[in-house]
TrEMBL record:
It catalyses: alpha-D-glucose 1-phosphate + UTP + H(+) = UDP-alpha-D-glucose + diphosphate. Belongs to the UDPGP type 2 family. The keyword Nucleotidyltransferase applies. This is UTP--glucose-1-phosphate uridylyltransferase. Residues 7-270 form the Nucleotidyl transferase domain. It comes from Microbacterium aquilitoris. Transmembrane segments: none annotated. The lineage of its organism: Bacteria, Bacillati, Actinomycetota, Actinomycetes, Micrococcales.
Amino acid sequence: MSAERIKAVIPAAGLGTRFLPATKAMPKEMLPVVDKPAIQYVVEEAVSAGIDDVLIILGRNKNNISNHFDSVPELESNLSKKGDHEKLKRVQDSSDMADIHFVRQGEPKGLGHAVLRARSHVGDSTFAVLLGDDLIDARDVLLEKMLEQNKKTGLTVIALMEVSPDQIHMYGAAAVEETGETDVVKVTGLVEKPKKEDAPSNYAIIGRYVLTPGVFDILERTEPGKGGEIQLTDALQELASTEGVLGVVFRGRRYDTGDRADYIKAIVQLAVDRDDLGAELRPWLKDFASGL
């Protein structure tokens, strides 16, 4: 589908403390997942959904991200002279895939604050927010379905995923009502990282949002919430009680790269499905697992 006038915003200003010391000088979004940095998968997802304008919100010491999406004439010339056209194409793809812009968040005041920094770029238009910690498998449809729901209803749309009740405290949780449409629900309330006994459901908010521009006015007046940060969840709670919010329930493959163990699992899961790596990795993994 076409996503004309829709821009994507990718917050990438987090400190990445769970991956220290690797993230002391390298942004967590640049950690490789097989042979591409995590943030490239996210940009590719936006492009696949028809979005060609991407704003990345940067924090301190995040210049590696902007460098990655720049062209590198010396490297490209070297690969061209060697006749290594496959690697040349992969290098060029990272700088040619979209019109990519950057803005600094300044002081890290939470996801809501990072989204607010996109206001001058986005203007009065609906826009998509994609978090780099959540990688959505390219073979599974999510963002396209969310954009379709927004186009049909004009409402904010968030991505939800059913998780174990024992894990809901790690996420924002949504109270929902059925709409009669498969895997599309009305969101009636949101709670940021609730205790298991306080969660309204086991529908967790995952890192994909299609937001109407009204969210900016709400974020402007949103006080710091959980963790002393301006929480996007708090703004979405107000939208749910005024304009209305829909949730698209995702049942596909999602890779959480914000956790060290899940990051390793993501690399393994993606690598074994690749034509150039799977044939070698699958038997090795079976042998390795049998010896544990």
